[in-house]
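Complex record, two chains
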Amino acid sequence: MNELLAQLREWREAIDRRLPPWWSRALTVALIVAGIVLPFLFAKTSGFTNATIIALAYAVMAVGLNVVVGFAGLLDLGYVAFYAIGSYAMGWLGSTFFFKAHVHVLVHGIANQEIGIHLNFLLILIAAALICAVAGVLIGLPTLRLRGDYIAIVTLAFGEIIGTVAVNGTDIHVGGGMTLTAGNIGISAPDQPYFPGIGQFNGALNLRPFYWLILGILLLVVVINVRLRDSRLGRAWVALREDEVAAVSMGIPLVRTKLLAYSIGAAFGGMSGAFFATYYTVINAGQFQFGFSILILAMVIVGGLGSIWGAVVGGLTLGYVNNYLIPNTFNSLPSKLGLHFQLTSVEFGIYGFLLVLVMVLRPQGLVPERRRKLEITGEIGAEDAQLVEPTATGPPL
Amino acid sequence: MSVDGAAVMSAEGVTKQFGGLVAVADVTFTIPERRIVSLIGPNGAGKTTLFNVLTGLYKPTLGRVLLGSRDVSRARPDQITGLGVARTFQNIRLFGAMTATENVMIGRHTRMKAGVIGSVLRPPWVRREERAVRERARELLAYVGLKPTVFDRLGAELSYGDRRRVEIARALASDPKLLLLDEPTAGMNPQESSSLTDFMRQLRDELQLTILLIEHDMQVVMGVSERITVLDHGEKIAEGEPASVRNDPLVIEAYLGKQA
């Protein structure tokens, strides 16, 4: 096994050496182009496109959670809260739910005549990000004095609180007979996105526009993350994660830097939540379960904690496993083997198995981040450091 | 002490208690500008605790810490760094998963301006700032005597001596006027200690720095300090020039025990 891996690594390095320096950029462009044309290979409402859209939205959430857990090292078990808040932002600002209001901004067709608040999807996306950023700060504040596991407990509690508020929101009156949420009945039929010059989306007829929309959101979120990672702020997060005392002594403001991680991570979760709301065409309190937080966290860990591309790969992988491989491709597998159950009924068992598998075979994740890899695999042993002690003839850096 | 310039930093009756334990008891002392001042005392005398109070990691239970004429007793560590105080740690606290250069760039954090929006949009001024800070970090690494070949090596991969150097470069990156060194010669041989001693003088003269030093190596202390404060059981038991402190009976007693 190890010999095989070593051989593979050798081959890869040999390939790397022969490729011109621009190849990674070219590969990125090729991947994006492939991503754009992908839905043309499938029917307009194919199940695969549907699963891909959901997987991409998961990836957006995983990239967002990665800011909090991966970059800043704050274990957040309540990320579902931002899924909920982002979804409700969509429900509040883009449906007939607040029926006493009559607000229409850049919307089209039936949404333009209906009662309620109807903002353009882009505005809702921004609003969801902003509302979640504020919520992220509020949830972050009480965790500032805590470390490690205790942060996890507090965030977990907040996730549960938001979920419970969503269920019981039917009793929270906001005036005029309107309530905060529709609880388990759900806010139905939020507006489908409309963009002037592009047109009205209709999920029942054609899923492709949704696909391109979420692909665009994912690319935007990834670019923002890459830039943040390689910035003053990104360095400050790593420093805080590694050694809080040293970091604050070197002039990094603890509260501000941590809260920024929470609120930026939350904003991405909110964007994805708003997208999910319009895509699923319902905002039901039952969607916002604790298990969802764990699912997103699993994506981050499987992909490689702290790695942006890892979060994307982890999100897509578990997204496909969750929405395609288990319910579609392999669901009838047990019955073919003469067993009387469906694969969907053991999906948590499958996740668990996959997680254990990844942790045993590749604890640093599928696409590990350089720093984390060193932290986890402990490759920087004392002896190694001695062996590579600089000499005048050492490799130029 | 009329020859001394203005006090860069001073402690006025600083007491730090942890529950029932009094780690620092009513200590008053000043650090005059452009001097090398040492803080000595037996193990557990409260030297590092006092350091942590001065840098804002601990808040004094009683008393005040003044930076110039400004009361910083309640200020946060990052604010104090911003006001021109930098430090190193007894047990070197480099960021192991960051390169030597990145470690020093962290030290510059408080002098940089790029925020979230700036970092994401990367306008020309942010790019310039980032480049300038990277260059400055490499200059500082060269200044403390690191070989260019290890500039991009991770903190955890550096040799012990190099880690000490990077830590000093990281502290210098914030353009401090006061540098606090917590046992910088720990684990060094006499030759290395003596070159560090020279380096401290160089820092003071070239960068107009004031240095507060915690040190166990008496040769270093007596050689480099212009003024020494001695702590024992959290209390200041002596203060003055090396020659007078060396012969102070209280100091001898604290270090060697009472004569039977």
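Note: The radius of gyration of chain B is 19 Å.
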